[in-house]
Amino acid sequence: DYCKGGYHPVTVGEQFKDGKYTVVRKLGWGHFSTVWLSRDNVTQKHVALKVVRSAAHYTETAIDEIKLLNKIVAAKPDHPGRKHVVSLLDSFEHKGPNGTHVCMVFEVLGENLLGLIKRWNHRGIPMPLVKQITKQVLLGLDYLHRECGIIHTDLKPENVLIEIGDVEQIVKTFVKEDLKKDDKEDNRGSSNASPKSEKEDEDKHKQREKTADILTREVSGISLDKSNEKKRAEDATAGDIISVKIADLGNACWTGHHFTNDIQTRQYRSPEVILGAKWGASTDVWSMAAMSGTKYGKDDDHIAQIIELLGPFPKSLCLSGKWSQEIFNRKGELRNIHRLRHWALPDVLKEKYHFKEEDAKKIADFLTPLLELTPEKRANAGGMAGGAWLEDTPGMEGMKIPGLEVGSKGEGIEGWANEVKKR
Ligand code: ATP
Ligand code: MG
Ligand code: MG
After folding, report:
1. Alpha-carbon distance 404 to 32, whole Å?
2. Using CA atoms, how far apart are residues 270 and 153, in angstroms rounded to an integer?
Protein backbone atom coordinates (compact mmCIF):
# COMPACT_ATOMS: atom_id res chain seq x y z
CA ASP A 1 0.00 0.00 0.00
CA TYR A 2 3.06 2.21 0.34
CA CYS A 3 4.15 2.15 -3.28
CA LYS A 4 3.40 4.14 -6.42
CA GLY A 5 -0.36 4.69 -6.52
CA GLY A 6 -0.70 3.96 -2.81
CA TYR A 7 -0.92 6.05 0.36
CA HIS A 8 1.28 9.09 0.77
CA PRO A 9 3.83 8.53 3.58
CA VAL A 10 2.58 11.39 5.76
CA THR A 11 4.87 12.42 8.63
CA VAL A 12 4.00 14.45 11.71
CA GLY A 13 5.15 18.02 11.10
CA GLU A 14 4.79 17.69 7.32
CA GLN A 15 3.54 20.79 5.51
CA PHE A 16 0.75 20.76 2.93
CA LYS A 17 -0.43 23.38 0.43
CA ASP A 18 2.76 25.46 0.61
CA GLY A 19 2.81 25.58 4.39
CA LYS A 20 -0.89 26.34 4.99
CA TYR A 21 -1.39 23.07 6.90
CA THR A 22 0.93 21.25 9.34
CA VAL A 23 0.25 17.63 10.32
CA VAL A 24 -0.17 17.07 14.08
CA ARG A 25 -1.43 13.53 14.56
CA LYS A 26 -3.22 10.70 12.82
CA LEU A 27 -7.02 10.52 13.14
CA GLY A 28 -7.84 7.44 11.12
CA TRP A 29 -7.58 5.68 7.83
CA GLY A 30 -9.81 3.98 5.31
CA HIS A 31 -9.59 2.06 2.09
CA PHE A 32 -9.01 5.24 0.10
CA SER A 33 -6.99 7.43 2.37
CA THR A 34 -5.31 8.32 5.64
CA VAL A 35 -6.80 11.14 7.72
CA TRP A 36 -4.70 13.53 9.82
CA LEU A 37 -5.33 16.11 12.49
CA SER A 38 -3.59 19.20 11.12
CA ARG A 39 -3.19 22.84 12.05
CA ASP A 40 -4.35 25.49 9.62
CA ASN A 41 -1.52 28.00 9.98
CA VAL A 42 -3.62 30.85 8.58
CA THR A 43 -6.57 30.56 10.98
CA GLN A 44 -4.62 28.78 13.76
CA LYS A 45 -7.52 26.29 13.98
CA HIS A 46 -7.33 22.53 13.64
CA VAL A 47 -8.76 20.55 10.72
CA ALA A 48 -9.00 16.96 9.48
CA LEU A 49 -6.81 16.42 6.40
CA LYS A 50 -7.72 13.44 4.21
CA VAL A 51 -4.87 12.36 1.92
CA VAL A 52 -6.13 10.02 -0.82
CA ARG A 53 -4.12 7.21 -2.44
CA SER A 54 -2.66 8.34 -5.74
CA ALA A 55 -3.72 5.67 -8.27
CA ALA A 56 -6.09 6.88 -11.00
CA HIS A 57 -9.12 5.01 -9.61
CA TYR A 58 -8.77 6.68 -6.18
CA THR A 59 -8.08 10.08 -7.71
CA GLU A 60 -11.18 9.89 -9.93
CA THR A 61 -13.39 8.77 -7.05
CA ALA A 62 -11.99 11.58 -4.89
CA ILE A 63 -12.73 14.17 -7.58
CA ASP A 64 -16.36 12.98 -7.66
CA GLU A 65 -16.45 13.13 -3.85
CA ILE A 66 -15.21 16.74 -3.93
CA LYS A 67 -17.90 17.75 -6.44
CA LEU A 68 -20.56 16.26 -4.17
CA LEU A 69 -19.04 17.92 -1.08
CA ASN A 70 -18.90 21.30 -2.81
CA LYS A 71 -22.59 21.03 -3.66
CA ILE A 72 -23.27 20.32 0.02
CA VAL A 73 -21.36 23.42 1.06
CA ALA A 74 -23.20 25.73 -1.31
CA ALA A 75 -26.71 24.39 -1.97
CA LYS A 76 -28.78 26.04 0.77
CA PRO A 77 -26.86 27.11 3.88
CA ASP A 78 -29.96 27.92 5.93
CA HIS A 79 -31.67 24.52 5.58
CA PRO A 80 -31.98 23.00 9.08
CA GLY A 81 -30.28 19.80 7.88
CA ARG A 82 -27.19 21.56 6.52
CA LYS A 83 -25.37 21.42 9.85
CA HIS A 84 -25.92 17.68 10.07
CA VAL A 85 -23.81 16.88 7.02
CA VAL A 86 -19.99 17.24 6.96
CA SER A 87 -18.39 20.39 5.59
CA LEU A 88 -15.56 20.39 3.10
CA LEU A 89 -13.31 23.35 3.94
CA ASP A 90 -10.66 23.05 1.25
CA SER A 91 -9.26 20.68 -1.39
CA PHE A 92 -5.98 20.58 -3.31
CA GLU A 93 -3.33 18.26 -4.73
CA HIS A 94 -0.14 17.15 -3.04
CA LYS A 95 2.88 15.68 -4.84
CA GLY A 96 4.88 12.96 -3.10
CA PRO A 97 7.12 9.99 -3.83
CA ASN A 98 4.13 7.76 -4.62
CA GLY A 99 2.43 10.18 -7.01
CA THR A 100 -0.03 13.05 -6.85
CA HIS A 101 -2.61 12.77 -4.06
CA VAL A 102 -5.97 14.49 -3.86
CA CYS A 103 -6.36 16.09 -0.41
CA MET A 104 -9.58 17.14 1.31
CA VAL A 105 -9.86 19.31 4.40
CA PHE A 106 -12.79 18.87 6.83
CA GLU A 107 -13.79 20.16 10.22
CA VAL A 108 -12.53 17.85 12.98
CA LEU A 109 -15.20 15.41 14.17
CA GLY A 110 -15.29 12.72 16.85
CA GLU A 111 -16.13 9.05 16.91
CA ASN A 112 -18.85 7.37 14.87
CA LEU A 113 -22.21 5.97 16.00
CA LEU A 114 -20.97 2.40 15.99
CA GLY A 115 -18.68 3.33 18.87
CA LEU A 116 -21.57 4.95 20.72
CA ILE A 117 -23.78 1.90 20.15
CA LYS A 118 -21.04 -0.42 21.39
CA ARG A 119 -20.52 1.60 24.54
CA TRP A 120 -24.22 1.45 25.41
CA ASN A 121 -24.50 -2.10 24.16
CA HIS A 122 -25.88 -3.85 27.20
CA ARG A 123 -28.55 -1.29 28.03
CA GLY A 124 -29.21 0.47 24.72
CA ILE A 125 -28.66 4.13 23.90
CA PRO A 126 -30.95 6.31 26.08
CA MET A 127 -34.11 7.31 24.21
CA PRO A 128 -33.53 11.10 24.30
CA LEU A 129 -30.18 10.54 22.58
CA VAL A 130 -31.75 8.19 20.02
CA LYS A 131 -34.33 10.86 19.21
CA GLN A 132 -31.71 13.57 18.76
CA ILE A 133 -29.61 11.38 16.48
CA THR A 134 -32.65 10.22 14.47
CA LYS A 135 -34.01 13.72 14.00
CA GLN A 136 -30.65 15.14 12.98
CA VAL A 137 -29.87 12.37 10.49
CA LEU A 138 -33.34 12.78 8.95
CA LEU A 139 -32.79 16.53 8.62
CA GLY A 140 -29.35 15.94 7.10
CA LEU A 141 -30.83 13.47 4.62
CA ASP A 142 -33.58 15.88 3.66
CA TYR A 143 -30.91 18.45 2.89
CA LEU A 144 -28.95 16.01 0.72
CA HIS A 145 -32.05 14.79 -1.15
CA ARG A 146 -34.08 17.96 -1.56
CA GLU A 147 -31.49 20.71 -1.86
CA CYS A 148 -28.34 18.97 -3.13
CA GLY A 149 -29.78 16.24 -5.39
CA ILE A 150 -27.44 13.81 -3.64
CA ILE A 151 -28.04 10.22 -2.46
CA HIS A 152 -25.61 9.01 0.21
CA THR A 153 -26.06 5.26 -0.63
CA ASP A 154 -23.99 4.08 2.33
CA LEU A 155 -25.80 5.32 5.38
CA LYS A 156 -24.80 3.25 8.41
CA PRO A 157 -23.62 3.94 11.96
CA GLU A 158 -19.93 4.06 10.90
CA ASN A 159 -20.70 6.98 8.61
CA VAL A 160 -22.47 9.18 11.14
CA LEU A 161 -19.89 11.07 13.20
CA ILE A 162 -20.43 12.82 16.52
CA GLU A 163 -19.54 16.48 16.58
CA ILE A 164 -17.08 17.51 19.25
CA GLY A 165 -17.51 20.60 21.36
CA ASP A 166 -14.46 22.79 21.65
CA VAL A 167 -12.02 21.30 19.16
CA GLU A 168 -9.13 23.55 20.16
CA GLN A 169 -9.51 22.64 23.83
CA ILE A 170 -9.56 18.93 23.07
CA VAL A 171 -6.59 19.14 20.74
CA LYS A 172 -4.62 20.46 23.72
CA THR A 173 -5.53 17.29 25.64
CA PHE A 174 -4.33 15.27 22.68
CA VAL A 175 -1.01 16.92 22.37
CA LYS A 176 -0.41 16.57 26.10
CA GLU A 177 -1.23 12.87 25.98
CA ASP A 178 1.09 12.44 23.00
CA LEU A 179 3.95 14.06 24.84
CA LYS A 180 3.41 11.80 27.82
CA LYS A 181 3.54 8.65 25.75
CA ASP A 182 6.69 6.57 26.03
CA ASP A 183 5.52 4.73 23.00
CA LYS A 184 7.43 6.80 20.51
CA GLU A 185 6.36 4.70 17.58
CA ASP A 186 2.85 6.00 17.63
CA ASN A 187 3.32 9.08 15.54
CA ARG A 188 6.13 8.18 13.22
CA GLY A 189 4.01 8.65 10.12
CA SER A 190 4.75 6.39 7.19
CA SER A 191 5.59 3.29 9.18
CA ASN A 192 2.23 3.50 10.82
CA ALA A 193 0.03 5.31 8.38
CA SER A 194 -1.46 2.23 6.81
CA PRO A 195 -2.09 -1.33 7.90
CA LYS A 196 0.49 -3.85 6.73
CA SER A 197 -0.71 -7.02 8.38
CA GLU A 198 -3.83 -8.20 10.14
CA LYS A 199 -2.17 -7.74 13.50
CA GLU A 200 -1.12 -4.23 12.65
CA ASP A 201 -4.57 -3.58 11.24
CA GLU A 202 -6.01 -4.48 14.61
CA ASP A 203 -3.55 -2.24 16.42
CA LYS A 204 -4.44 0.64 14.12
CA HIS A 205 -8.07 0.02 14.80
CA LYS A 206 -7.51 0.21 18.53
CA GLN A 207 -5.52 3.38 18.16
CA ARG A 208 -8.22 4.90 16.02
CA GLU A 209 -10.79 4.15 18.69
CA LYS A 210 -8.59 5.71 21.28
CA THR A 211 -8.16 8.86 19.22
CA ALA A 212 -11.88 9.09 18.67
CA ASP A 213 -12.50 8.50 22.38
CA ILE A 214 -10.34 11.42 23.37
CA LEU A 215 -12.08 13.59 20.82
CA THR A 216 -15.49 12.61 22.07
CA ARG A 217 -14.76 12.77 25.76
CA GLU A 218 -16.06 16.30 26.09
CA VAL A 219 -19.16 15.81 23.98
CA SER A 220 -22.40 16.47 25.82
CA GLY A 221 -20.59 15.82 29.06
CA ILE A 222 -20.84 12.08 28.42
CA SER A 223 -18.19 10.50 30.58
CA LEU A 224 -16.43 7.67 28.79
CA ASP A 225 -15.07 6.25 31.99
CA LYS A 226 -16.04 2.60 31.72
CA SER A 227 -16.02 2.15 35.48
CA ASN A 228 -18.73 4.71 35.95
CA GLU A 229 -21.76 3.34 34.17
CA LYS A 230 -24.28 5.08 36.36
CA LYS A 231 -22.71 8.48 35.86
CA ARG A 232 -22.73 7.92 32.10
CA ALA A 233 -26.40 7.05 32.08
CA GLU A 234 -27.21 10.15 34.08
CA ASP A 235 -25.00 12.37 31.96
CA ALA A 236 -26.62 11.30 28.76
CA THR A 237 -30.16 11.62 29.98
CA ALA A 238 -29.70 14.94 31.70
CA GLY A 239 -30.99 16.77 28.64
CA ASP A 240 -27.59 17.48 27.09
CA ILE A 241 -27.50 17.97 23.40
CA ILE A 242 -25.52 15.73 21.09
CA SER A 243 -24.90 16.79 17.52
CA VAL A 244 -24.16 14.36 14.71
CA LYS A 245 -23.15 14.72 11.08
CA ILE A 246 -23.56 12.45 8.08
CA ALA A 247 -20.05 11.80 6.75
CA ASP A 248 -18.10 9.79 4.15
CA LEU A 249 -19.63 10.91 0.87
CA GLY A 250 -17.15 8.62 -0.89
CA ASN A 251 -19.96 6.37 -2.17
CA ALA A 252 -22.56 9.07 -2.77
CA CYS A 253 -24.09 9.89 -6.15
CA TRP A 254 -26.44 12.38 -7.82
CA THR A 255 -30.18 11.82 -8.08
CA GLY A 256 -29.62 12.47 -11.80
CA HIS A 257 -26.53 10.27 -12.14
CA HIS A 258 -26.11 6.99 -10.32
CA PHE A 259 -22.51 5.74 -10.57
CA THR A 260 -23.40 2.09 -9.85
CA ASN A 261 -26.30 -0.12 -8.73
CA ASP A 262 -24.03 -2.00 -6.37
CA ILE A 263 -24.78 0.19 -3.36
CA GLN A 264 -25.33 0.04 0.41
CA THR A 265 -23.93 -2.25 3.06
CA ARG A 266 -25.97 -5.48 3.32
CA GLN A 267 -27.72 -4.79 6.59
CA TYR A 268 -28.98 -1.40 5.45
CA ARG A 269 -29.78 -2.36 1.84
CA SER A 270 -33.31 -1.55 0.66
CA PRO A 271 -35.64 -4.14 -0.94
CA GLU A 272 -35.55 -2.41 -4.34
CA VAL A 273 -31.72 -2.52 -4.37
CA ILE A 274 -31.61 -6.18 -3.30
CA LEU A 275 -34.00 -7.01 -6.15
CA GLY A 276 -32.07 -4.97 -8.69
CA ALA A 277 -35.08 -2.73 -9.34
CA LYS A 278 -35.19 1.04 -9.82
CA TRP A 279 -34.03 3.06 -6.84
CA GLY A 280 -33.65 6.70 -5.87
CA ALA A 281 -33.12 8.97 -2.88
CA SER A 282 -35.71 7.01 -0.89
CA THR A 283 -33.19 4.18 -0.58
CA ASP A 284 -31.34 6.25 2.07
CA VAL A 285 -34.56 6.54 4.10
CA TRP A 286 -34.72 2.75 4.28
CA SER A 287 -31.12 2.60 5.52
CA MET A 288 -31.89 5.22 8.14
CA ALA A 289 -34.77 3.14 9.53
CA ALA A 290 -32.75 -0.09 9.21
CA MET A 291 -30.12 1.28 11.59
CA SER A 292 -32.37 -0.02 14.37
CA GLY A 293 -32.50 -3.53 12.92
CA THR A 294 -30.66 -6.86 12.87
CA LYS A 295 -28.16 -8.64 10.62
CA TYR A 296 -29.09 -10.61 7.52
CA GLY A 297 -27.44 -13.38 5.56
CA LYS A 298 -28.14 -14.02 1.90
CA ASP A 299 -30.44 -11.95 -0.30
CA ASP A 300 -33.44 -14.27 0.01
CA ASP A 301 -33.03 -14.55 3.80
CA HIS A 302 -32.94 -10.80 3.98
CA ILE A 303 -36.09 -10.48 1.84
CA ALA A 304 -37.78 -13.20 3.93
CA GLN A 305 -37.07 -11.28 7.12
CA ILE A 306 -38.41 -8.09 5.57
CA ILE A 307 -41.62 -9.95 4.66
CA GLU A 308 -41.91 -11.37 8.17
CA LEU A 309 -41.64 -7.90 9.58
CA LEU A 310 -43.59 -5.83 7.08
CA GLY A 311 -45.82 -8.24 5.21
CA PRO A 312 -45.77 -9.47 1.59
CA PHE A 313 -44.23 -7.46 -1.24
CA PRO A 314 -46.58 -5.90 -3.75
CA LYS A 315 -46.36 -7.96 -6.94
CA SER A 316 -45.22 -4.95 -8.97
CA LEU A 317 -42.13 -4.60 -6.79
CA CYS A 318 -41.20 -8.26 -6.39
CA LEU A 319 -41.15 -8.85 -10.14
CA SER A 320 -39.60 -5.58 -11.25
CA GLY A 321 -35.91 -6.14 -10.48
CA LYS A 322 -33.01 -7.61 -12.38
CA TRP A 323 -32.64 -10.33 -9.70
CA SER A 324 -36.37 -10.85 -9.06
CA GLN A 325 -36.54 -14.24 -10.84
CA GLU A 326 -33.87 -15.63 -8.56
CA ILE A 327 -35.77 -14.73 -5.41
CA PHE A 328 -39.46 -14.86 -6.37
CA ASN A 329 -41.48 -17.19 -8.61
CA ARG A 330 -44.01 -15.83 -11.10
CA LYS A 331 -46.74 -15.85 -8.51
CA GLY A 332 -44.63 -13.54 -6.38
CA GLU A 333 -43.81 -16.22 -3.81
CA LEU A 334 -40.31 -16.74 -2.43
CA ARG A 335 -38.59 -19.57 -4.35
CA ASN A 336 -36.49 -21.10 -1.63
CA ILE A 337 -38.06 -20.11 1.64
CA HIS A 338 -41.52 -21.36 2.49
CA ARG A 339 -42.23 -21.21 6.14
CA LEU A 340 -42.44 -17.59 7.24
CA ARG A 341 -43.56 -16.60 10.67
CA HIS A 342 -45.27 -13.27 10.78
CA TRP A 343 -43.67 -11.15 13.48
CA ALA A 344 -44.97 -7.62 13.04
CA LEU A 345 -42.95 -4.57 13.94
CA PRO A 346 -44.84 -3.51 17.11
CA ASP A 347 -44.61 -7.10 18.43
CA VAL A 348 -40.90 -7.27 17.66
CA LEU A 349 -40.40 -4.02 19.54
CA LYS A 350 -42.27 -5.43 22.54
CA GLU A 351 -41.09 -9.02 22.55
CA LYS A 352 -37.51 -8.64 21.33
CA TYR A 353 -36.61 -5.13 22.41
CA HIS A 354 -38.82 -5.05 25.53
CA PHE A 355 -40.57 -1.76 24.85
CA LYS A 356 -43.78 -1.02 26.69
CA GLU A 357 -46.96 -1.45 24.62
CA GLU A 358 -47.47 2.29 24.27
CA ASP A 359 -43.85 3.05 23.30
CA ALA A 360 -43.75 0.13 20.87
CA LYS A 361 -46.78 1.53 19.11
CA LYS A 362 -45.29 5.02 18.87
CA ILE A 363 -41.98 3.77 17.50
CA ALA A 364 -43.70 1.41 15.05
CA ASP A 365 -45.92 4.24 13.82
CA PHE A 366 -42.81 6.32 13.28
CA LEU A 367 -40.77 3.63 11.50
CA THR A 368 -43.51 2.17 9.29
CA PRO A 369 -43.64 5.00 6.71
CA LEU A 370 -39.81 4.92 6.49
CA LEU A 371 -39.87 1.17 5.89
CA GLU A 372 -42.50 1.36 3.14
CA LEU A 373 -41.56 -1.36 0.63
CA THR A 374 -42.49 0.56 -2.50
CA PRO A 375 -39.85 3.30 -3.02
CA GLU A 376 -42.39 5.76 -4.49
CA LYS A 377 -44.55 5.53 -1.38
CA ARG A 378 -41.72 5.77 1.18
CA ALA A 379 -41.95 8.84 3.43
CA ASN A 380 -39.34 11.54 2.90
CA ALA A 381 -36.76 12.22 5.61
CA GLY A 382 -37.57 15.87 6.27
CA GLY A 383 -41.26 15.23 6.80
CA MET A 384 -40.58 12.43 9.27
CA ALA A 385 -38.18 14.66 11.23
CA GLY A 386 -41.44 16.35 12.27
CA GLY A 387 -43.06 13.04 13.31
CA ALA A 388 -44.98 12.69 16.58
CA TRP A 389 -42.36 10.42 18.13
CA LEU A 390 -39.70 13.14 17.71
CA GLU A 391 -41.91 15.93 19.06
CA ASP A 392 -40.12 15.96 22.44
CA THR A 393 -36.54 15.59 21.14
CA PRO A 394 -34.38 17.41 23.71
CA GLY A 395 -33.13 20.70 22.35
CA MET A 396 -35.22 20.33 19.19
CA GLU A 397 -38.73 20.27 20.68
CA GLY A 398 -41.51 20.69 18.16
CA MET A 399 -38.97 21.60 15.48
CA LYS A 400 -40.18 20.94 11.92
CA ILE A 401 -39.14 21.91 8.41
CA PRO A 402 -41.72 24.55 7.46
CA GLY A 403 -44.23 23.44 4.86
CA LEU A 404 -43.34 19.76 5.00
CA GLU A 405 -46.12 17.33 5.90
CA VAL A 406 -45.29 14.35 8.10
CA GLY A 407 -45.46 11.32 5.84
CA SER A 408 -45.22 13.28 2.60
CA LYS A 409 -43.35 11.30 -0.05
CA GLY A 410 -41.30 12.21 -3.10
CA GLU A 411 -43.03 15.54 -3.72
CA GLY A 412 -40.42 18.19 -4.37
CA ILE A 413 -37.55 15.72 -4.46
CA GLU A 414 -36.25 14.85 -7.89
CA GLY A 415 -35.13 11.26 -8.33
CA TRP A 416 -37.01 9.99 -5.29
CA ALA A 417 -37.65 6.53 -6.68
CA ASN A 418 -35.51 6.31 -9.81
CA GLU A 419 -32.61 7.94 -11.60
CA VAL A 420 -33.63 11.12 -13.39
CA LYS A 421 -31.55 11.70 -16.46
CA LYS A 422 -31.09 15.37 -17.15
CA ARG A 423 -30.95 16.55 -20.76
P1 ATP B 1 -13.64 4.16 3.62
O2 ATP B 1 -12.86 2.90 3.44
O3 ATP B 1 -14.52 4.13 4.83
O4 ATP B 1 -14.33 4.65 2.39
P5 ATP B 1 -11.98 6.54 3.35
O6 ATP B 1 -10.56 6.30 2.93
O7 ATP B 1 -12.91 7.10 2.34
O8 ATP B 1 -12.51 5.22 4.01
P9 ATP B 1 -12.97 8.11 5.54
O10 ATP B 1 -13.97 7.08 5.89
O11 ATP B 1 -13.48 9.40 5.00
O12 ATP B 1 -11.85 7.51 4.57
O13 ATP B 1 -12.05 8.43 6.80
C14 ATP B 1 -11.26 7.43 7.41
C15 ATP B 1 -11.32 7.56 8.92
O16 ATP B 1 -10.71 8.81 9.31
C17 ATP B 1 -12.71 7.60 9.51
O18 ATP B 1 -13.19 6.32 9.76
C19 ATP B 1 -12.48 8.39 10.80
O20 ATP B 1 -11.94 7.56 11.80
C21 ATP B 1 -11.41 9.38 10.40
N22 ATP B 1 -11.99 10.66 9.98
C23 ATP B 1 -12.47 10.95 8.76
N24 ATP B 1 -12.95 12.20 8.70
C25 ATP B 1 -12.77 12.73 9.92
C26 ATP B 1 -13.05 14.01 10.52
N27 ATP B 1 -13.63 14.99 9.82
N28 ATP B 1 -12.72 14.19 11.81
C29 ATP B 1 -12.15 13.19 12.52
N30 ATP B 1 -11.85 11.98 12.03
C31 ATP B 1 -12.16 11.74 10.74
MG1 MG C 1 -15.47 5.62 5.85
MG1 MG D 1 -14.91 6.56 1.78
Report:
1. 38
2. 10
